[in-house]
Amino acid sequence: MQRTSAALAAAIAALLASGSAAAQNTPSMEEMWRLIQQQQAEIQALRTELEQARQSVRETGQDLAETRQQVEQTREAVTAATSEVESLRASSAGAADWAASTHLGGYGELHYNAGKADEIDFHRFVLFFAHRFSDTTRFNSELEVEHTLAGEGKPGEVELEQAYIEHDLAPGLRGRAGLFLVPVGLLNEVHEPTTFYGVERNPVESQILPTTWWEAGLSLQGEFENGLGWDAAMHSGLATGAGSHYAVRSGRKKVAKAPAEDAAYTLRLRYQVPGLQLAAGYQHQSDVTQGQDPTAGAADLFTAHADWSLGRFGLRALWARWHLDGAGPAAVGADVQKGYYVEPSFRITPRVGVFARWNEWDNRAGDSADSRWRQTDVGINYWLHPNVVLKADYQFQDAPAGLADDDRLNLGVGYQF
Predict the structure, then answer these.
(1) What is the pTM of this model?
(2) Handedness of CA 348, 352, 353, 354 (dihedral sign)
(3) CATH of the domain spanning 114-416, picked from 1.10.620.20, 2.40.160.10, 1.10.760.10, 2.30.40.10
(4) What tens digit of pLDDT does each residue of 302-313 get?
């Protein structure tokens, strides 16, 4: 009996030591479950030994006091080991719950641009991080590295494009607070490279809207059962000025110690059914320079877009127009900034699609001088996987008078997960 007790004591000591080490070293989920299963098997063996010891007392009549002491020691060790297992089980369950509620994703795209640029660039590397606190409350974020290298004298940037709390207020109604993408256009909110044609994002949504465009504030989104939906947001605004000829793209401050004297308000109505998406939006900001230019004033943006697919055929179209008040914008023709594009496409196979796109935009359309850009893009997408795409296109550009055209080949690879 003494040999049996010694063996049991040694086994229990090893069991507890392994449990403590596992807790300290924070094992993986797979290692934790393997440890729990091993400890449960050893506990069962200890219980069997305990029962055999009791049976030995009954059959051999050995010293009852000594045996009772040994049995009690073994029972306490079994209890301690069982408690260790339950602690590990609770810890692993908590880790499993956190992991199930937390999601990672991302996208990226590598571009080669011939023509005047003649360069290769890993344009974007983006990571998504999201966590679900409950069935009604969530956190979403997007962190991006542009052009590989960021810092003083480097071409790239590290940017936080989204970081907001979303809460379901009622069925079909949710609110957001934080840093979010402004609800305008086709690409501003959904711009993963596998979701659109062309290596580069279209110039109208880049120069006029301007994608990618995020601000900080509050927003509401609602949906009805008939396919109708709406967005309403109050958020930080642009801060453009005379130094950039009041170009709206230069007004993005990306919520990095951005001026907050004047807020902006965005409204959008949308209709979506299988194969068709229609939307129209409006934004107002009472001072597009954030108080820095007394010769400028309010800015109003009007947008409309359509995205239609019928079998293999697809058609996208977008129109956008800014109106800027004040003598300053009017003096350089920037009181009107507008653009549109039309993009038909055709899926030759589920993996291969071709497209053509006509783009026209003008950031100084209020001037009588020629400032209008025109560009035609034709190209092909090849999806190695629904979330991995190879792209090639050629752009034919017609620049305003006095500026050089940039006709060029573009090649790209993109992914999302």
Answers:
(1) 0.78
(2) negative
(3) 2.40.160.10
(4) 999 999 999 999
